[in-house]
């Protein structure tokens, strides 16, 4: 399982789970979240939906940023699994994907997705996303 | 006869090049522009001999199917990967550079399909990245179906293969 606690400050703010099969993309999102975003707690990483579910079972997560196209378990399958669990209803879900097609966006609406970010994106887009979904201090 | 859903090769290649430029500019703050293959050949001649390259391929399926290939010098992949993650290129290991090359091809392919076929639904396979050499790059540059892109003054080659028979006509 590819999962780690990146910041070790689970009490400092909302915890984030980044799900993407590209370690470099996860690193980029993590860097932007740490540098440009509002105060956050721990950052967890998973390379697919299956690993992400294991992290969700084990840790309190407030935000999930997920890719769609991933091996083992896709982002869509992950979001469907999350929707089936009442205790995860409050988790903010953000899709970050190269696939910005109309049908994917429509599907996302049915999966309780808050925001849909298309790759490529400038780092300030991620900063704005974090600002928009993080409660003001 | 051409399927209305299948891309015409010259238009598709041009759109693919535009997607690569946008990915480079937005994700890596790089300067990029499409160029003809003669310029790519000139840039290749100016590169160091026996330079390692990476070939990243992303297959897609949907209303039509095919493969997008991106070939670039390994040094450029390291440079862009460093800019992408905010680290010095020399700190990246082989796995990270390979991963980055795959993600680059994934973004180029995904953006191209979204921009040109937003109402269609495609599935992208996981990128496959293989090492290549400058001889393979020179051969690719001689392929009239390839498109050159100059990225930070280094050559990048894009190739689009559409398997739908209608698109080949």
Give the strand content of chain B. Answer: 25-35%
Q: How many domains is the backbone of chain A divided into? A: 1
Oligomer category: heterodimer
Shape of chain A: globular
> Looking at this structure, what is the CATH superfamily of chain A?
Response regulator
Largest inter-chain interface? A-B, 24 and 30 residues
CATH topology of chain B: Chemotaxis protein chec
- Classify the secondary structure makeup of chain A into a structural class: alpha/beta
Separation of the first and last Cα atoms of chain A = 34 Å
The CATH architecture term of chain B is 3-Layer(aba) Sandwich
Would you report the number of β strands of chain B? Answer: 7
Radius of gyration of chain B: 15 Å
Helix and strand composition category of chain B: alpha+beta
Largest beta-sheet details of chain B: 7 strands, antiparallel
Helix content of chain A: 25-40%
Number of helices of chain B: 5
What can you see in these coordinates?
- The complex is a heterodimer of chains A (137) and B (169).
- Chain A has 137 residues and is α/β, with parallel strands linked by helices.
- Chain A has one domain (16-39, 51-132): Response regulator (Rossmann fold, 3-Layer(aba) Sandwich), CATH 3.40.50.
- Chain A has five helices and five strands.
- A five-stranded parallel sheet of chain A has the order 2-1-3-4-5, with helices on both faces.
- The N and C termini of chain A lie far apart (34 Å).
- The mean pLDDT of chain A is 88.
- By secondary structure, chain B is α+β, with helices and mostly antiparallel strands.
- Chain B has one domain (26-164): Chemotaxis protein chec (3-Layer(aba) Sandwich), CATH 3.40.1550.
- In chain B, strands 1, 2, 3, 4, 5, 6 and 7 form a seven-stranded antiparallel sheet that branches.
- In chain B, a hairpin with a 4-residue loop joins strand 2 (52-61) and strand 3.
- In chain B, helix 2 (37-46) packs antiparallel against helix 5 (134-141).
- The longest helix of chain B has 23 residues, at 94-116.
- The A-B interface holds A 21-25, 27-28, 31, 35, 69, 71, 97-104, 118-122 and B 22-23, 26-27, 81, 84-86, 95-96, 99-100, 102-103, 106-107, 109-111, 113-114, 117-124, 126.
């Amino acid at each position: 399982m590819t999962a780690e606690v990146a910041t070790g400050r689970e009490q400092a703010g909302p915890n984030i789970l980044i799900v993407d099969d590209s370690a470099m993309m996860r690193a980029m999102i993590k860097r932007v979240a740490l540098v440009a975003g509002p105060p956050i707690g721990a950052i967890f990483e998973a390379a697919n939906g299956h690993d992400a579910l294991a992290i969700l079972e084990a840790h309190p997560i407030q935000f999930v940023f997920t890719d769609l196209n991933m091996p083992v378990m896709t982002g869509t399958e992950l979001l469907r699994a999350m929707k089936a669990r009442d205790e995860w209803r409050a988790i903010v879900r953000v899709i970050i994907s190269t696939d910005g097609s109309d049908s994917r966006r429509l599907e996302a609406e049915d999966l309780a997705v808050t925001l849909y970010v298309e790759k490529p994106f400038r780092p300030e887009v991620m900063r704005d996303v974090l600002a928009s979904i993080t409660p003001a201090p | 006869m051409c399927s209305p859903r299948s891309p015409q090769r010259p238009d598709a290649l041009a759109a693919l090049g535009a997607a690569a430029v946008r990915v480079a500019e937005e994700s890596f703050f790089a300067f990029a522009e499409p160029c003809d293959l003669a310029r790519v050949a000139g840039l290749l001649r100016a590169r160091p001999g026996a330079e390692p390259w990476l070939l990243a391929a992303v297959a897609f399926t949907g209303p039509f199917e095919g493969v997008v290939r991106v070939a670039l010098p390994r040094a450029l992949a390291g440079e862009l990967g460093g800019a992408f993650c905010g680290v010095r290129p020399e700190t990246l290991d082989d796995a990270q550079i390979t991963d980055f090359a795959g993600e680059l091809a994934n973004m180029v392919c995904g953006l191209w399909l979204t921009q040109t076929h937003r109402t269609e639904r495609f599935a992208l396979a996981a990128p496959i990245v293989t090492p290549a050499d400058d001889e393979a790059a020179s051969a690719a540059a001689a392929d009239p179906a390839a498109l050159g892109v100059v990225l930070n003054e280094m050559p990048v080659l894009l190739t689009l293969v559409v398997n739908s028979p209608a698109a080949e006509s």
